[in-house]
C-alpha cells in the first residue's frame, strides 16, 4: 500500500483525482463518510475519514466526495453512516473494498468510483457456513475486472472497469459482459459465467444493470462496483435436535459431543446441509433437574459437562473404571434423560480419571495452549472506533468459571450474595482462589480439565462436520441466570433488580417470566459490547451458523420487577413512557387510583369469608377507603410463605395453611390489577399495563378515562416506540454480527413490532416461519409455497411504506432483502405428530384449508400426512428448511410407536419444565436405515434444494440450467391428496404409497 504520509512533501509526485459516488438515503442528522487504510482516508479512523456531500437526483440521494491521491495508489475502504459528531451509526457489511488505480493515468486526471452500499445480504455467501463448509471445495469470491468502454453523448470514450463478486457453486472459468446496449450516456449490461464445459454458460438473473449520469467534468476512468453476480438462490435443508436428546450406542444416558459425528454422517446421507442444536453452555446453577433448562446459563463461555464422553478422557482407563462405565450405561439408558443421575455419574467417573492423569494432561502443550487461549475474554483488536486503552485485555472466562464452581460447591449455592467476602468479585480474590499454592487447587484444575476435554471433543465433531460439508448451527440464549459467573464477574452489565420475560402471546396468555436480569445496554456500549463480541468469538470456534434466541430482545426487552411471578406486569425497555404532564393534558389525574393495587374489600370477603378482617389486618394496608395493598413484609410469594410459617398459630381457627397460602397468592396476583405501572426510577412516568382492558380496575373507570387510556395504550404498544427500537437494534446487533463470520439467524416469533423485519433485512438476518403461527393477517396457517426466499409478503400491510424506504436505502428490490428458515415445528411447540393429534378442531381446519379436503382427516398423523407437510416445507422458496428430527422420523411407521406428546421438548407455559426428551432410536440405527435415508433424500432432491455431496462435487441440475425450482404443481398436490384420502376410505389398507 502507498503511504501518503511518506510522500506528501514530494512536489514531483504525480497526483490524480479520486471521486467517490454512492446512492444512500439517510435520516435527518446523518451523513456518509468514506474511511480507508491510507491516511488520506483516515487510516481507519472514521473521525478523520473523507466526508461526503449529498445531492438529490430524482428520488435518490447521491453522496459524493473527492480527494487527491498519487498515481499507483492502492487502499482498502468502506462507507460509514455517522451523526453530526462523527459517531458511527452504521457501516457496510461484508469485506472491505479494495481499490487499485488503473495504469497510465496522467497528472490531474480523475477516476470516479461508482459504488452501491454493501448490505449484509450481499455478504451472506461470505459467511463461514458457505465459504468454509457448503462451498468449501468449489467456491470463491473474486472481483472480476473485464475492461469495457462506454460511449457517452459527448462522443468521448471512457475506459471503465466493471466489478462483480462471483460465487462459484459450480466451476466457473471466467465472467464476461453480455448484451451491452449503448444509448446516450446510459449503458445496460449483464454478466454471465463461462463454465468448464465448452459452450456452457449461465447468464445472471434479473433486469439489466445500468450506468447513468457521468460527472462533469467527465472522468478519465470509471470503476463500477455493482455487487454480487445475481445467480439462482441457493436453498438447503437441515435437521434440528437438542444435544441432550441424541441417543447413541456409546453415550452415557444423554447425547454427547462426539455423537455429532454420527449425526453428521446420517445428515449427509439423508441430504442435509445443516445440523442445528439448542444451547450447549453449562447450566449447573441449582445442582438438580432444574438445570436441564438450556437457556439459563451458569456461564456463557463454558461448555456443559453433561455432554462429555468419559470414555474419551484417556486411552489408559483402568478396567475397573471401564466396568463402572458399562454398568452406568445400562443403568442410565432410559426413555428420558435422568439429568441428576447422569451428571453425578459423569463427574464421579471423570474425577477418578483426572486423579490418574492430571499431571500428564495439565503439563501438556495442548492443555497449556487451551488455558492460554481462554485466560482472557477477548483478544486485543485494532478497530476504528476503539482507542488503545479500550483494547486492553480483559480477564478471561476460564479462571472465574473454575473459581465460581468451587465456591458454588463450597457454599452449596450459586447465589453469590451468600458467599461472604467472595460476594463481590475482584481479580485479587480470584488469583488467590486459583493459586497453585491454595488447598483447593486440585478442585480448580478439575474444572479446567473438564472444559479442556469438552473443547477437544466438540472441536473434533465441529471439524468433522466442516469436512463433510455440514453446517453446525448453535444457539445464542438471550439471557443468563441471575446467579451466574457473568453476573458475579460483571454485575454492572446487568440490571439485577429486574427480570426478563415476554408479554402474553401465542404460547401463554399470562406472558412469561424467565427470571434473567435485563441487560444494562448503556454500560455494555462503553466498550463496544465486548462481552457480546467475546461470546460470539467463542461460539465461532465450533459453529459456522447460529440462532439468536428472542431477537426482539435486541430491539427491546420485556422488563419485569424482580418480584413478578408472571409476564403480565411488565414494560418495554427501552421505551418512551407516558408522562404525568401528557396524561394530565388528556384529563387523567388520579394516578394513585390507576397505578396502585386495585384490591377492594369485596375481593377479601370473597376469598376469606367472615375472617377476611383477620387476613386484612395481618397482610394488608388500607391505603384508601375499602382499597387495600399488601404490606411491605408480605408483598411477594416468598414473604407470604415466610410470614404464614412464623405466625401459623394465629390462624388455627381458619382453613389449613395451604389453602390460605393459595388464596393469598391469588390475591397477590390480583394486586397486579392496575392500569398504569409507575416507573420505579421516575415517579412522573407511567407505562400502560398489558391487556389493560381486561383488568377490573380499568372496567370501573368512567368512559372518558377509558377512551383516553385505550388510545394511549395502542399508541404505546404499536406506534410510539418504533423509531426508538429501530435505532436501538442498529446499535446493538451490528456489534454482534461483525464479531464473527458465522451465518446469523434470528428467532422472531411472538409479538413482532413493525420495525423488526426491516432491520433484519438490512442486516441480512434470516428469520423463522412456523406454519401454525402465521405472520400474515387473516390466515389460520402459513402457506409454505408462499414463503419467500427474498420477499416481504409476510409483513403486515402497515409495513409497506417502511419496506419501500428500506429498499430505497439499500438500493435493491424488495425481493432481495429478506431471508427465511421455514419449519413445521420447533423446540418451543409440540411436534408435528403431537400437534396433529392434540386438537381435533385445528386438525380438521388444516385438512380443509391446507390439504384441500372436505373429508374427515385421520386422527393420527400417519406417515403420509407427515410426508405431505414436510414436502410443503422442503419445496418452499425459503433459503433453509430445517426440520426437528422427530418430524422427520414421523415419515416411517416404525418410528411413530411412542406417544406423540412425549416427543415435545419444551412447554413454554411451564417455567419449571424438565428438558429431558431422548430420541428412542440410536444414531447408529438411523445410519443403517437405508429406507428412511432414501425417502428423505428423495424428498430433498425432488425439491431442488442443494444436498451435500457424498463423493465428488455434485453440480445441481437447477444451477446448470440457470432456472429456479418451482413450487409443487397443482397436479402434484392433487395426486398426493388422493393418496392421503385413501386413509379415510380404506383404513385397513396394508400399504399406502408414499407421496
From TrEMBL:
The protein's name in its UniProt record: 4-alpha-glucanotransferase
Q: Which CDD domains match?
A: CBM20_DPE2_repeat1
Question: Which GO biological process categories is it annotated with?
Answer: carbohydrate metabolic process
Which family does the entry's similarity section mention? Belongs to the disproportionating enzyme family.
Q: Its catalytic activity?
A: Transfers a segment of a (1->4)-alpha-D-glucan to a new position in an acceptor, which may be glucose or a (1->4)-alpha-D-glucan
- One GO cellular component term: cytoplasm
Q: Indicate the principal place this protein occupies in or around the cell.
A: cytoplasm
Q: Which enzyme type, at the first EC level?
A: transferase
Amino acid at each position: 500500500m502507498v503511504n501518503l504520509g511518506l510522500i506528501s512533501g514530494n512536489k514531483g509526485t504525480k497526483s490524480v483525482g479520486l471521486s467517490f459516488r454512492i446512492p444512500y438515503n439517510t435520516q435527518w442528522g446523518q451523513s456518509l463518510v468514506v474511511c480507508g487504510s491510507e491516511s488520506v482516508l483516515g487510516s481507519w479512523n472514521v473521525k478523520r475519514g473523507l466526508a461526503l456531500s449529498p445531492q438529490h437526483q430524482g428520488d435518490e440521494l447521491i453522496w459524493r466526495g473527492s480527494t487527491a491521491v498519487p498515481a499507483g495508489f492502492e487502499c482498502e475502504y468502506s462507507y460509514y453512516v455517522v451523526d453530526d459528531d462523527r459517531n458511527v451509526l452504521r457501516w457496510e457489511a461484508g469485506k472491505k473494498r479494495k481499490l487499485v488505480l488503473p495504469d497510465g493515468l496522467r497528472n490531474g486526471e480523475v477516476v470516479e468510483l461508482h459504488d452501491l452500499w454493501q448490505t449484509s445480504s450481499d455478504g451472506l455467501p461470505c459467511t463461514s457456513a458457505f465459504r468454509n463448509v457448503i462451498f468449501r471445495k468449489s467456491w470463491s469470491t473474486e472481483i472480476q475486472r473485464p475492461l469495457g468502454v462506454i460511449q457517452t453523448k459527448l462522443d468521448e470514450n471512457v475506459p471503465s472497469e466493471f466489478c462483480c463478486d462471483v460465487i462459484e457453486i459450480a466451476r466457473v472459468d471466467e465472467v464476461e459482459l453480455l448484451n451491452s446496449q449503448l444509448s446516450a450516456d446510459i449503458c445496460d449490461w449483464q454478466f454471465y459465467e463461462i463454465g468448464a464445459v465448452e459452450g456452457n454458460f449461465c447468464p445472471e438473473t434479473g433486469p439489466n444493470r445500468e450506468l447513468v449520469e457521468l460527472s462533469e467534468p467527465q472522468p478519465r476512468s470509471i470503476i463500477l462496483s455493482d455487487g454480487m453476480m445475481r445467480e439462482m438462490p441457493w436453498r438447503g435443508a437441515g435437521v434440528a435436535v437438542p444435544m441432550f436428546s441424541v441417543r447413541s450406542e456409546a453415550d452415557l444416558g444423554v447425547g454427547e459431543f462426539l455423537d455429532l459425528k454420527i449425526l453428521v454422517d446420517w445428515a449427509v446421507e439423508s441430504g442435509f446441509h445443516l445440523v442445528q442444536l439448542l444451547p450447549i453452555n453449562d447450566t449447573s446453577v441449582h445442582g438438580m433437574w432444574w438445570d436441564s433448562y438450556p437457556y439459563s446459563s451458569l456461564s456463557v463461555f463454558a461448555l456443559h459437562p453433561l455432554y462429555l464422553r468419559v470414555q474419551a478422557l484417556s486411552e489408559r482407563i483402568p478396567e475397573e473404571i471401564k466396568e463402572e462405565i458399562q454398568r452406568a450405561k445400562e443403568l442410565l439408558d432410559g426413555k428420558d434423560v435422568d439429568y441428576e443421575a447422569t451428571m453425578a455419574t459423569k463427574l464421579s467417573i471423570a474425577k477418578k480419571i483426572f486423579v490418574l492423569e492430571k499431571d500428564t494432561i495439565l503439563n501438556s502443550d495442548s492443555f497449556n495452549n487451551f488455558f492460554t487461549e481462554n485466560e482472557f475474554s477477548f483478544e486485543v483488536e485494532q478497530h476504528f472506533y476503539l482507542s488503545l486503552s479500550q483494547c486492553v485485555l480483559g480477564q478471561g472466562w476460564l479462571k472465574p468459571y473454575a473459581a465460581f464452581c468451587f465456591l458454588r460447591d463450597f457454599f452449596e449455592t450459586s447465589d453469590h450474595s451468600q458467599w461472604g467476602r467472595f460476594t463481590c468479585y475482584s481479580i485479587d480474590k480470584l488469583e488467590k482462589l486459583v493459586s497453585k499454592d491454595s488447598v483447593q487447587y486440585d478442585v480448580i484444575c478439575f474444572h479446567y480439565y473438564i472444559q479442556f476435554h469438552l473443547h477437544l471433543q466438540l472441536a473434533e465433531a465441529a471439524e468433522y462436520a466442516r469436512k463433510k460439508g455440514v453446517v453446525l448451527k448453535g444457539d445464542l440464549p438471550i439471557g443468563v441466570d441471575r446467579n451466574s459467573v457473568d453476573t458475579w464477574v460483571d454485575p454492572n452489565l446487568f440490571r439485577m433488580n429486574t427480570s426478563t420475560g415476554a408479554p402474553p402471546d401465542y404460547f401463554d396468555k399470562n406472558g412469561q417470566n424467565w427470571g434473567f436480569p435485563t441487560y444494562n445496554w448503556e454500560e455494555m456500549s462503553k466498550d463496544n459490547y465486548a462481552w457480546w463480541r467475546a461470546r460470539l468469538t467463542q461460539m465461532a470456534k465450533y459453529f459456522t451458523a447460529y440462532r439468536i434466541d428472542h431477537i426482539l430482545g435486541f430491539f427491546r426487552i420485556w422488563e419485569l420487577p424482580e418480584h413478578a411471578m408472571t409476564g403480565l406486569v411488565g414494560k418495554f425497555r427501552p421505551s418512551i413512557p407516558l408522562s404525568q404532564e401528557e396524561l394530565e393534558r388528556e384529563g387523567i389525574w388520579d394516578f394513585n387510583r390507576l397505578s396502585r393495587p386495585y384490591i377492594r374489600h369485596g375481593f377479601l370477603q370473597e376469598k376469606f369469608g367472615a375472617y377476611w378482617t383477620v387476613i386484612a389486618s395481618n397482610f394488608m394496608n388500607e391505603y384508601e377507603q375499602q382499597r387495600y395493598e399488601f404490606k411491605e413484609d408480605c408483598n411477594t410469594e416468598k414473604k407470604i410463605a415466610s410470614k404464614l410459617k412464623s405466625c401459623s398459630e394465629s390462624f388455627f381457627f381458619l382453613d389449613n395453611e395451604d389453602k390460605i397460602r393459595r388464596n393469598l397468592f391469588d390475591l397477590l396476583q390480583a394486586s397486579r390489577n392496575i392500569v398504569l405501572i409507575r416507573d420505579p426510577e421516575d415517579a412522573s412516568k407511567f407505562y400502560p399495563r398489558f391487556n389493560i382492558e381486561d383488568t377490573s380496575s380499568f372496567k370501573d373507570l368512567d368512559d372518558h378515562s377509558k377512551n383516553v387510556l385505550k388510545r394511549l395504550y395502542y399508541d404505546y404498544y404499536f406506534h410510539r416506540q418504533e423509531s426508538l427500537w429501530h435505532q436501538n437494534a442498529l446499535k446493538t446487533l451490528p456489534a454482534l454480527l461483525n464479531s464473527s463470520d458465522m451465518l446469523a439467524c434470528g428467532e422472531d416469533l411472538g409479538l413482532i413490532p413493525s420495525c423488526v423485519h426491516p432491520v433484519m433485512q438490512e442486516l441480512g438476518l434470516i428469520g423463522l416461519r412456523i406454519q401454525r403461527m402465521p405472520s400474515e393477517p387473516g390466515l389460520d396457517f402459513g402457506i409454505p409455497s408462499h414463503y419467500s426466499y427474498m420477499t416481504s409478503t409476510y409483513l403486515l400491510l402497515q409495513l409497506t411504506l417502511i419496506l419501500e424506504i428500506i429498499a430505497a436505502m439499500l438500493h435493491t428490490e424488495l425481493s432481495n432483502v429478506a431471508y427465511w428458515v421455514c419449519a413445521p415445528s420447533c423446540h418451543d411447540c409440540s411436534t408435528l405428530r403431537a400437534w396433529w393429534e392434540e386438537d381435533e378442531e385445528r386438525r380438521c381446519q388444516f385438512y380443509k384449508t391446507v390439504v384441500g379436503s372436505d373429508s374427515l382427516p385421520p386422527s393420527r398423523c400417519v406417515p403420509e400426512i407427515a410426508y405431505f407437510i414436510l414436502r410443503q416445507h422442503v419445496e418452499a422458496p425459503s433459503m433453509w428448511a430445517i426440520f426437528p428430527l422427530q418430524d422427520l422420523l414421523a415419515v416411517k411407521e416404525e418410528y411413530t410407536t411412542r406417544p406423540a406428546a412425549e416427543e415435545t421438548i419444551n412447554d413454554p407455559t411451564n417455567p419449571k419444565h424438565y428438558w429431558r426428551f431422548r430420541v428412542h432410536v440410536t444414531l447408529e440405527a438411523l445410519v443403517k436405515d437405508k429406507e428412511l435415508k432414501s425417502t428423505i433424500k428423495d424428498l430433498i432432491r425432488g425439491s431442488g434444494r442443494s444436498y451435500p455431496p457424498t463423493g465428488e462435487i455434485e453440480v445441481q441440475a437447477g444451477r446448470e440450467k440457470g432456472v429456479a425450482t418451482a413450487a409443487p404443481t397443482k397436479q402434484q398436490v392433487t395426486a398426493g391428496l388422493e393418496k392421503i384420502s385413501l386413509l379415510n376410505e380404506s383404513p385397513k389398507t396394508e400399504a399406502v404409497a408414499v407421496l
